[in-house]
């Protein structure tokens, strides 16, 4: 082959070949017309595929003929070739300049001008070692984003020259520089071609294989991020990229390493989720007779990102914190999620199902140095309306068709999840205390001793509403609590039930049509100490009970410990917040009249010149629905505001209704109030003996309950006035004359003497009458006669006939005439007397006024 042939274009045909000289000459001849040809193509312009328009084809044919004719002419330079060589040299120089002199500017331009807009990320399939994801995005270079004008100009020129940039199949490794460059993952990218000219948009759509790195490294990063230890996350991507310009010009293989930093607070957050369903129920074990506790949870979250993924069934472990942050988490349950379809801008619904066979011992064991277990701490927050934290960790053993690499990664990551607590406000529908029994403090107890407080016994009845999510059987077998009692929002005191468990039982009622599920709890409390902290509030309560007409409502707030039996075993829930009310019915309107005290078996145990100590058995009626045990109590006795004495009682058991033979000790000591007290005491006894309606005011004092002076002082503000107890006299049960101390009288007219039948209320002591100055009256005003006798005589227990007492008749009075008319018969007389009495060492002068005394008149 000739040299001319060797230099001919590969695409030329034999008929179109010309000698260089001929072509040069032809080009020289046509240079003028060539230079005037427009830059844009016309009908005669060659197309990009090498074909020519028809008109120009004819010219080429003629040129070919000329070439064959003039092939022997002298060769000349081919100016188009020269121009092409010059252009090629310029382009080569530009590429060299771009490649070697301005790479930094181009790199800066690419970083700032790049615009990446993801439109969709879809998980197409899960492979044995990773996932295959379809990525769709819009990619372009926007020079307006470049701040430096020089960089922007160089970048625009360079990208205009290159126009398109292509990559071969590429493997990208992503490392974490902060964690010893551990491999985070690998992405396999297919060949890609993009137009890099300024403003040209590229809609890329490709499938990439994503393979995670070592599970240990991922676990370390994820846990540090979840614990807030990462402020800035650094990523470094490395890849060997084969580049092609304009789609076919190879640019070689380039090792690329790029670092990115992400601030932790600017990373995409987990979407806000809403727990739409929580259900706890009993579930049978297939093929077994046993049941387990099952939990069903549904969670809804809105996906605001352009991400689409189908998540298969996954297994998780649910754990709760131990005693301290350094203790390992405690496994409570294993759960499996249903397949989840995540779509862009749509809600994703996750349903999880878990089972609990039994509670682990580490969950219910008390923490060292405390009285709480991890379960107690969890329930304390949950029932208090807080959100306790549970921890969710992937299950190592794969579930169903889940690849092992997913289980390996998930099992190495523990995510804290706030479990929504619930407030148990208004959980207690009703609270009542029946069969109440009170025990006053032990007088020998030291302050601070539980026995120094009054004690309450009774039956607590509680109706509690069960949350809708609790659909399993439970039974409360015992309770223990500390309760604070209020009245009108003012604290009255504290009821302590912490010393021992109080037995309880419960009855569960399922929800019905229009009715909620409920639990009735009954517990009998025995001798629970009641520490009164505000005496004024106690006074208000008792005043309302004694004198009010409406129910007295006491409020109660309590932290209750409950022992519960369930199918997963018995466990204790501590410090369950409870709030309720105790309605107390007002006492009888005629409370003090209904008491109707009646004294008997009176015995004088000690006397002084101005005091008497008496022990008596009293029969009283308790009209209230409450009973009480009284170890010791002291009450002051008043009359019209004057202290006259003291009454004491020990070891009393007061029940509802009639109470007989209640032993009471009384000290009569009016001189404690001075002369006024002596006078007031004398008049009170005189009125009582004369049959007047007398009353005594009872008031407590600081020493009423020695161990609780606050209670005695508080109650002292109440004046409780009761009728003086009726004395039990021999033959006096039928009323009428038999209730008088002077039962009968006999007048001897001719001897001018009189005898009287006296009835003593004392069964063990003798009363002595030292002096009598008396007047007998007829019809209340007419004098019959007078007696003035100063010789002592005795009045032993029972009925006593006095000696004959001398009588000075009023001979000219109407009363004496009536006496003579009744000679040999009987008549009714009144009597006024001043009597000096003596009982042991005690002496007193009393007055007496008796009416309707039956008298026998003898000659």
TrEMBL record:
<feature type="domain" description="Tag1 C-terminal">
    <location>
        <begin position="470"/>
        <end position="584"/>
    </location>
</feature>
<protein>
    <recommendedName>
        <fullName>Pre-rRNA processing protein</fullName>
    </recommendedName>
</protein>
<feature type="region of interest" description="Disordered">
    <location>
        <begin position="1"/>
        <end position="48"/>
    </location>
</feature>
<dbReference type="InterPro" id="IPR059065">
    <property type="entry name" value="Ig_Tag1-like_4th"/>
</dbReference>
<dbReference type="Pfam" id="PF26150">
    <property type="entry name" value="LEA-2_4"/>
</dbReference>
<dbReference type="Pfam" id="PF26153">
    <property type="entry name" value="LEA-2L_5"/>
</dbReference>
<dbReference type="InterPro" id="IPR055011">
    <property type="entry name" value="Tag1_C"/>
</dbReference>
<feature type="domain" description="Tag1-like fourth Ig-like">
    <location>
        <begin position="597"/>
        <end position="709"/>
    </location>
</feature>
<dbReference type="InterPro" id="IPR059066">
    <property type="entry name" value="Ig_Tag1-like_5th"/>
</dbReference>
<keyword id="KW-0812">Transmembrane</keyword>
<keyword id="KW-0472">Membrane</keyword>
<feature type="domain" description="Tag1-like fifth Ig-like">
    <location>
        <begin position="737"/>
        <end position="847"/>
    </location>
</feature>
<dbReference type="Pfam" id="PF22786">
    <property type="entry name" value="Tag1_C"/>
</dbReference>
<dbReference type="InterPro" id="IPR046368">
    <property type="entry name" value="Tag1"/>
</dbReference>
<feature type="transmembrane region" description="Helical">
    <location>
        <begin position="82"/>
        <end position="106"/>
    </location>
</feature>
<dbReference type="GO" id="GO:0000329">
    <property type="term" value="C:fungal-type vacuole membrane"/>
</dbReference>
<keyword id="KW-1133">Transmembrane helix</keyword>
<feature type="compositionally biased region" description="Polar residues">
    <location>
        <begin position="34"/>
        <end position="44"/>
    </location>
</feature>
<dbReference type="Pfam" id="PF26174">
    <property type="entry name" value="LEA-2_1"/>
</dbReference>
